[in-house]
Amino acid sequence: MASQGTVLFDLFGVIAQHQSSEMRTVLVSTAGAPAPAFWDAYWRLRLPYDRGELTGPDYWREVGAALGTRFGAARIGALIEADVSSWSGVEAEMVVLVEELAAAGRRLGLLSNIPPELATHYETHHSWLRYFEVCGFSCRIGHAKPDPDAYAWCVRMLGVPPADVLFVDDREENVDAARAVGLHGALFTGLADLRATLLEHRLDAAAPGRGLTED
Predict the structure, then answer these.
(1) d(Cα 193, Cα 186) in Å, to the nearest integer?
(2) What are the angstrom distances between the C-alpha of 68 and each of 46, 72, 131?
(3) Which has the closest alpha carbon to 27: 17, 15, 16, 41?
(4) What global pTM score does this model have?
């Protein structure tokens, strides 16, 4: 039993911000494509990139081909830069929470669907990653949520039973997938609710069905 409770965090939508409308506009403008077609290709082709099966240039060449065009090297470089920038915003209050949990002795892990260039950016620019004992970046582990192997990799690296881990994510399908493999799951809806959930999980880390945010 992990009496203090082990917490496995999602990154985007919890600690880091989703793309803003302004940055989404920048990406579409950089690609020079109609927004609906661009976002269809962007997300439809994203999973292999997140799993590290494609480099940034490879991914953007595939996006270009899906749009019926060919992105040159300069355009691809600009798209990678804009894409990384669009996912770089961080919630300062959540970083404070991470620091508080680490100071209190909570074991922390991170599980994120993230491509190679963006993972490198976070490792280079965000020193608070040191608070996470395990960083399960999809591009490094070869598995992306909601693949059960993504959760299994993190639990194995943490060295604790799944029932001792609380997984926090803003996407219900990812929380459901974590619960299906034996983790506790909390749907992230805001900092105040998360603080209450974390407190309950600490007090009763090994009791299935407690410490959850209902969704």
Answers:
(1) 10
(2) 17, 13, 44
(3) 41
(4) 0.90
